[in-house]
Amino acid sequence: MVTRTFLMALALGCAPESPETTTPGPGSSSSTSSTPEPSTPTPTTTDVPYEAAFYPADRVQSPLSDFVVDGLHAIAALGEGRQEDVFAKVGASSTVSRNTLYCFADDPIDLGAHTELTTALETFLDGDAAGATPFDRVTLAAISGRTAGWAIDGPFQDELAAINPRFSLVHYGTNDMGMGATYHSALHPFYDNLDALVQISIDNGTIPVLFGISPRLDNAAANEWVSTYNAAIRGLAQRWQIPFIDLYLATEHLDGQGMSGDGLHLEGFSDGACLLTAEGLEHGYNIRNLIALEALDRMYRTVLLDDGALDDAIGVPGSGGPDDPWQIGTLPFSHGDDTSASPWSEVDVWDCDDADESGPEVYYELEIAEATGVRAVVVDPGDPDIDIHLLDATGACVDRAHQLLEVDLEPGVWRFALDSWTDGDGVPHSGEYQLVVVEM
């Protein structure tokens, strides 16, 4: 099983001859190296060295920097013989819909002002996905109503074996939201399952491209969690340094956010969902097809043509320490780190709780200009047990949670301390985690 540490080493040109083979549980990356992986907090405009990219929340397509592109080539190197002009479709009802990608193979096409996408479109139209094009292939890895957990239980592997693709377009989350007693409890197994799906794809030498989810206009309570799920998906892509597409952001400007009357699915232009004209792009499925084709074009240029990076590296402020915390510049915010690699262990017991938190910590800082409701979620798959503590400007702990903290913050500077719980035997449960912070 290929680990992220091995991929990072390949990108840096210093990997061993064969990947690490420890087998993690779902959602774990099982790094066997003691060297901390590059962290990826909020961007600045300063020059930065060659390092992992931060994925800003204001971009539909995540950045393809030098580091990301080298990582994609490292994944491709793990799957020699994959069909370079074939992609797998992986998902649920949005993927199954005839309005999604199918129309590029058999319906009227008009790229409108996006003629730069012609070569990539023609390249993948020439791909042989078991007798069909990748666009109109009836995939084994998508059924309406299914979840990421269903896909990793065989269907995704079956599709990879059937068409031998270089890329996979993965779109899960909407149905996964309903797989728990609460939207919060459903988030953690979804993250684990999506992480496992990414792992399967990479082990196959197939580069995964993750899509965020659409609004839930059918359910107000669910809709309040869409930004959290999207931030978690973006954060997972950022951890692996693989492409992410923000479907929500891409359709946000449309009337009704591009959703159909059921409030759950996108709607398409009646003349055709692959008409990427100004009129066509007033509809949700047309936008989805555009951003999917743009992502394929970006893969075509960086992976197949090897044209190099398409985006500049982004600077990152802070180091995660108590005197130099990672800066949460804007919300939503996603960041993955590893407390076991932290040199800071400043607090054993916080003044807002009596739990033994004597393991290492990582610190974040958020400055807000007006009163804001904030949701902070920590996802820590496997053995790590990372708790979240809210600190005021004086450093005093004012609130604490195991995984979920929902608070109304007054204007000012606030800090989050991510601390490793320690069990009765004195063993700190430190390790990797994903922090998501969004406005409520």
Percent of sequence in beta strands:
15-25%
Number of domains: 2
What name does the CATH topology of the largest domain carry?
A: Rossmann fold
Q: Radius of gyration in whole Å, from Cα?
A: 21 Å
> If classified by CATH, what would the architecture of the largest domain be?
3-Layer(aba) Sandwich
Global morphology = globular
CATH H-level superfamily of the largest domain: SGNH hydrolase
Q: Structural class, please?
A: alpha/beta
Task: Give the tally of β-strands.
Answer: 13
Topology order in helix (H) and strand (E) letters:
HHEHHHHHEHEHHEHHEEEEEEEEE
Distance between the termini: 38 Å
Low-confidence stretches: 20-49
CATH class of the largest domain: Alpha Beta
Describe the main β-sheet briefly: 5 strands, mixed
Order of adjacent strands in the largest pleated sheet: 5-7-12-9-10
- The helix content, as a percent range, equals 25-40%
Distinct helical segment count: 12
Please state the average pLDDT score: 90
Features:
26% helix; 2 domains; Jelly Rolls; five-stranded mixed β-sheet; Rossmann fold
Walk me through this protein's architecture.
There is one protein chain. This protein is globular. By secondary structure, it is an alpha/beta fold. The longest helix has 21 residues, at about 185-205. The chain has helices spanning about 5-10, 65-75, 95, 105, 120-125, 150, 155-165, 185-205, 220-225, 225-240, 245-250, 285-305, and strands at about 85-90, 165-170, 205-210, 245, 325-330, 335-340, 360-370, 370-380, 385-390, 395-400, 405-410, 410-420, 430-440. It has a 5-stranded mixed sheet, with no helix packed on it. The protein has a 4-stranded parallel sheet with strand order 1-2-3-4, with helices on both faces. Strands 6-13-8-11 form a 4-stranded antiparallel sheet, with helices on one face. α8 runs parallel beside α10 (about 225-240). It folds into 2 domains: about 5-305, SGNH hydrolase (Rossmann fold, 3-Layer(aba) Sandwich); about 325-440, Sandwich (Jelly Rolls).
